[in-house]
Amino acid sequence: MRYGQFCPIAKANEILGEKWTILIIRELLMGARRFNELQRGLGMISPALLTSRLKTLEEQGLVVRRRINGQKGYEYFPSASAEDLMPVLVAMGEWGLCWARHNITDADYDADFLMYYLERSVSADNLPGVETVLRFEFSDFPTQKAWWLVVTKDRVELCIKDPGKDVDVYFYSTVRTMADVWMGDSSYKEAIKQGDLSVVGPSSLTKNITSWLTPSIFAESPRQSRSVTASINA
Fold this sequence. Notes:
The chain is α+β, with helices and mostly antiparallel strands. It folds into 2 domains: 77 residues, Winged helix-like DNA-binding domain superfamily/Winged helix DNA-binding domain (Arc Repressor Mutant, subunit A); 105 residues, Nonspecific Lipid-transfer Protein, Chain A. The protein has 11 helices and 7 strands. A 5-stranded mixed sheet has the order 5-4-3-6-7, covered by helices on one side. It has a two-stranded antiparallel ribbon with strand order 1-2. The longest helix is centred in the middle third of the chain and has 14 residues. The two termini are 37 Å apart.
């Protein structure tokens, strides 16, 4: 895509303006390295399109591809130019919090996407002991109500089948409630008080959940109270 302009915004958009490109960079900056990890974070993208976008980003110098030692396949790393996009993505996200939230629908609250980000958000070093098992149950996701995160010092594993281990902390809510708490639109205390969330486990773990289940990077970002319509009519 070319715009025929020397404007730096136009030139940047020639690289970043294709569908999925910004979200692919988001996933790379959030730590996704392998093709299947990128697919998990992107959801509906086809493998062929993801392959094409990664190739383009590599040609443009935003992605570094390296073969996995002793295995088939590649890992993908953000280059310095891609890492320089982090403040741009944060600014886009904060703009979205203020001016695009009215476009969110019930279908956007996807349990797979939420659990992938919760998996990424666990700070294993802040959990006591060798292993911690977390169980999430979403009443509004009937096809897969229960999810488990098995946390050790070395890894966090997401399970969609009972791993057969003793559970340390149970979370009961809807996908939307858990997403809102993680995003910072609500707090654990508020959601529990309103009856939208139940957290069951020892107080040593439940009294300060955010110490080991870190919130979204947007949790402290400002939320715009005015509606888009009100802004236009002002």
